Amino acid sequence: MIDHLVYAAPDLQAAVADVEERFGVRARIGGRHVGRGTRNALLALGPQTYLEIIAPDPEQPEPAVPRPFGLDSVDRGRLVRWAVACEDIDAAVAGARGHGYDPGDVVDGQRAEPAGTVLRWRMTSGELADGAHPYNVPPEHTAEARNILGSGKLLCPEVWVLLETDAAAARSAARQALASYMRLDNYVNNWRRIGFGDDELAGGGSDRFIDANVAWGSEEAIRKRIQEHWDAGADHVCIQSINPDGSRRPDEKVLALLAPGGRS
């Protein structure tokens, strides 16, 4: 069930006045999110649903982390999010991750009302993060993630790299390294969502699946694959090596070649 809609604005009082002028009802002051540098006003939309108008709080010091919902750079009021209420948030997060979506860890939230009452709740932390660190994903996922995050968040995908030019040997080593992930529902469901069928995920993964998720080959070929993530919108590409023997033991050679200034 939708709990509330989030309307972000640069100035709370101006946004409350604007909403009142448009709809003929005035939102009441909700309170301050102490430590987050924000305050809000609330407008009932029904028995259990409301509109939250949220803006920077000029009476709080600058928070240690960016304000949520892009409030540090928002220049006009706009709907930015909706929030879902659930009875068991830990189970809901586990279910979402099982289907390939990670809403973030569960964290505590609170709001201090004008009368001094402090309301407390639990919520997912995805909106509080500075960005995303996708794992086990091809460049197409990086492009999709950038589209979701927009331009104001960091996007740092992880890329498997394998310095092996023989296709059969490279794919064999890659399948060995990825074997444990192929048994985990969150990764498998995400690969399905991206477009890999069950037949491509069987038997350690098809050649197309392996080639999409592991940058293997010569140094030049690996760099080209990494560049695909940059081109798709990555701010930083994290590399994790697969040893040519298929183990997770770091391959110092490829890491040295790909390190800044390490080009051969």
Model description:
The chain has 264 residues and is an alpha/beta fold. It has two domains: 127 residues, 2,3-Dihydroxybiphenyl 1,2-Dioxygenase, domain 1; 128 residues, TIM Barrel (Alpha-Beta Barrel). The chain is built from nine helices and twelve strands. It has a five-stranded mixed β-sheet.
Would you kindly provide a brief summary of this structure?
By secondary structure, the protein is α/β, with parallel strands linked by helices. The protein is 33% helix and 25% strand.
The total of helices stands at 9
Largest sheet: 5 strands, mixed
How far the N terminus sits from the C terminus, by CA atoms, comes to 56 Å
Number of strands: 12
Percent strand: 25-35%
Please tell me what the overall shape is. elongated
Which runs of at least 5 residues are low in confidence (pLDDT < 50)? none
CATH arch. level architecture of the largest domain: Alpha-Beta Barrel
Structural class: alpha/beta
Helix content: 25-40%
CATH class assignment of the largest domain: Alpha Beta
Tally of distinct domains: 2
Strand and helix map with partners:
Layout: E1 2-8, H1 12-23, E2 28-33, E3 38-44, E4 50-56, E5 78-84, H2 89-98, E6 106-112, E7 118-124, E8 131-132, H3 139-149, E9 154-155, E10 158-163, H4 167-178, H5 185-194, H6 198-201, H7 207-213, E11 214-217, H8 219-231, E12 238-241, H9 252-258
Parallel strand pairs: 1-4, 8-9, 10-11, 10-12
Antiparallel strand pairs: 1-5, 2-3, 3-4, 6-7
Helix pairs in contact: 3-8
